[in-house]
Specification:
Blueprint lengths: L20 H16 L6 H18 L3 H19 L8 H23 L4 H10 L4 H30 L6 H32 L4
Helix pairs in contact: 1-4, 2-4, 3-4, 5-6, 6-7
Length: about 200
């Protein structure tokens, strides 16, 4: 399985990719703060930030369809959380504000993560003195999430090779079993990895 399907564009050559990781991370933080902090920001702030992000996306040479797929993947979570504002008095303007703020912030994070290799982002976190335990956890998570993806893919292929028919209820049962088995295998793998790292002096 290819292991670059989540950040496959983080190592291409473009004017945005060539900028230092610290500058890109600081810029992303500023854009998010400008968008999120004002309770009722004027529309021209959203328009200006959105125009700047679109220009950076074009300069990054990352396909627009890739950005759209990533955005559509996370957008339902944004809409679900923002929909809670509809139950408040005057909730619709709040709903729109939450959706726009969250979407702009999400686009900023997607742009940062796909123009900067993950190890460079970890290096930036170390430079700003983020607790080492947190950085280590993120590094391990990034490394082993691909292992879990491989495990899931193998389980799906093994199951599909032994299953005939495509009933909807069978699909849900199949997915629930995969999730349960993946949880058990992940726990066992984590214990083995921890024991191996401890045996080599890791603390």
């Amino acid at each position: 399985m290819r292991h670059d399907y989540w950040d496959r564009y983080s190592r291409i050559d473009s004017p945005v990719h060539r900028r230092p990781a610290a500058i890109k991370a600081a810029f992303a933080l500023v854009m998010i703060l400008i968008t999120v902090i004002p309770p009722h920001p004027p529309i021209f702030i959203f328009a200006g930030v959105a125009a700047l992000l679109l220009a950076l996306i074009a300069a990054s040479r990352i396909p627009g369809l890739f950005f759209l797929k990533r955005l559509l993947f996370f957008e339902p979570f944004i809409l679900t959380v923002a929909a809670l504002a509809l139950f408040q008095p005057g909730g619709f303007p709040k709903f729109l504000t939450l959706v726009v703020k969250s979407t702009v912030s999400l686009v900023t994070v997607i742009l940062l993560s796909n123009t900067t290799p993950f190890h460079e982002l970890l290096r930036v976190l170390r430079r700003v003195h983020v607790p080492s335990v947190f950085v280590t956890m993120m590094a391990l998570m990034y490394r082993y999430i691909f292992v879990l993806a491989d495990e899931t893919q193998r389980m799906r292929r093994a199951r599909q090779s032994r299953t005939f028919g495509k009933r909807r209820e069978g699909t849900w049962i199949f997915l629930s079993r995969i999730v349960g088995q993946l949880f058990l295998r992940s726990t066992e793998r984590a214990e083995r990895i921890y024991a191996a790292m401890s045996a080599r002096g890791w603390k």
